[in-house]
User: What shape does this take?
Amino acid sequence: MSTRWGAWLEDRARLTTFWRWFADEPVPGGARLRYVFGSVLVYLFMQQVVLGILLATYYSPSASDAWASTAYLNDQIEAGWFLRGLHSYGSSAMVIVLVLHALQVIVSGAYRRPRELTWLTGLGMGAIVLAFAFTGYLLPWDQKGYWATQVATSIIGNIPLGESIQHFLQGGAEYGNLTLTRFFAIHVFVLPFGLGGLLVAHLALFRVHGVTPPIRPTDAELQRKSQPFVPYQLFIDVCAMVLTGAVLVFVTFSTHGAELFAPAQPSSNFVARPEWYFLSLFQLLHYLRGPLQLVGTVVIPGSIAIFLLALPWVDRARERGLRHRWPILVVVGGLFSGVIALTAVSMVADANDELYQKGLAEAQAQAEEARRLALAGISPMGGAAVFENDPRFHARQLFERNCQACHEISGVGGGAEGPSLAGYASRDWLAGMIRNPKADQYFGLSKHDEMDAYPTKSLSDADLRALVEYLMSHGVADGGPVDAELAARGKAVFEDDQNCSMCHEVEPGESGGGPNLHEYATRAWVTRVIEDPSQADLYGPSAQMPKYVDKLEKQEIELLAEFIVGQRTPAE
Amino acid sequence: MAADDAPESEEDQDVGAESDDASRRTFLNLGTGVLAAAAAATVVAPAAVYLTAPLRRGPAGEGGFIPTFDRTMFPSGEPVKVELVADQVDGWNAIHDVAIGAAWVVALEGELLALSTVCPHLGCAIDFDPGEGKFKCPCHASAFALDGTVEFGPSPRPLDRLDVRVEDRLVSIRYERFKTGIETKEPV
Assistant: This one.
């Protein structure tokens, strides 16, 4: 049956003939481990194509959707983080194996006549792999990709005639929807077809000239030890592919996939770094400033590119042996060491840079927050709108609209009338208020001027601490730890020594000259104040702050109260 | 190793070396296949789970009742088309107040009916022809009476009724989608 089908297919498609042509390719001198890099690159490229198509089934390239769809596929679709992680780390793997492949070709002199075109097509593919990395980095539209790519396109914009190239690439003077659609089109259509085409040419040229055999044995010896590609070399190749794949899976699992920072926000700042294999160029720009910048962005990378392109012609050695080609190897070794050294310097500098580490930690915390909020779905406004899912976002907005004109908070607003709510109802806030309620940051700018100041001579620091603790025990602590012994002493200060109870009641519902301090400064108390501060047991008819009970929804008032009480630092 | 002393032609090869080489080749071929399959599986298996994820999500709109208009807006025997507006989760987006569908609301003998505008035949949007007093599908010319029963055309079942609730004169409708092309009314 199978042979009949085989014969039928062979008659029509010549598949067996093709397979024999592929499989029986002679490997002079026998299969070798050092020939695996090309095959591993083909494997990685194929895997990247498959993974890229899978990602494209959920990804949407628009400024409002890119981050949201990436977060969705990464955090909500089963195995999404794994496939995205493989794709992201796969690009790093391609760069590493590409360098190993190039080094092996250079060391063995495989770029030499008659294989110049094989070498050039290989270099072309190398450039395309870097272009893949560059365009792919932006696609999630997160802070990292957005800012790192900004740096790169600005560099393009700084070279002569670069501005038009930059604007052409990013679809205008600014980043936006058109930047993403262009980068996406380049990443998923232009580059894969480009790489695929060059790969066909590269492999065809490879079959024309064959593998570059080891130098020492005689031709007769090489012929004698020759093995067919299948299964001898292919088996070694597949082992190397599986090893590469296993490393990728391991890295993906141990990091739980690739990073995804918070959605791109043009108004924010971010500690931008390019992908690790561009760090050497990045570091170079630390040294080359002003007019010298062009040396770092164009002259040096351009010279290296020209050197590599011209390598088959620069190399005039008569023999392929290492001894004859040492100048080439010294130059390549020097360049390679330079790249490694600059990369290392950049990494060490970042590791020791406190400001960078702090920025990174903040960015990671923000990323975690954004991704948690994204689970509830994001408004069609897009990526950064994810923060609107945070209840505190609404509270802050409510505060800005309703409260900020009178009350200062975290350094913004206020300056008039109402007390500052920064650190509201913390022990420090209470102590400061009792010491001098007429200070500007308390009630000094308001009409409430009945309460006396309690300077050190009338109220010792120890008594003040006890008094504050007593107030905390009445609810301010909102369930936080209270020193009961200190609070008991404070009760005496409150009732007897200072006679606070003359104006302030502490039993629920009773009213006095000043606000009742039962549950003082708790969420429930603040809610009541916002609703109507002129209630008899609060600030009474002389209350200066307007009622909000008719202006805001109950839910909004509670949200505000929560937000205001939350100004107390967690340690308090 | 067999390859080291591989003779020039097969005739010269002794039987032992030949079978040795053959078994080595078989082992390598098999190993290649197994390893390649393993490498492929690390992508194919998660890909299958990943691609089918939407199939494991519940129905999109297990929705509650959506408020529409005052009861007096629906005069007896005159169908009124009502857009049903609700919050919707669409992939990564959570969208507030979008039209998720529509219903024809008609009061018949004091009873309020809400009929889905989705034709039970193949899902076109049902229109109302005031001249004939019938609902009509613009695609395959199915015609329905005011109570939704089929009067003409290929529709396999009457127009789908949606749940209606009237509270304090406010008419609310629960929106649902049903499978098209079959005789029974089954939620999608």
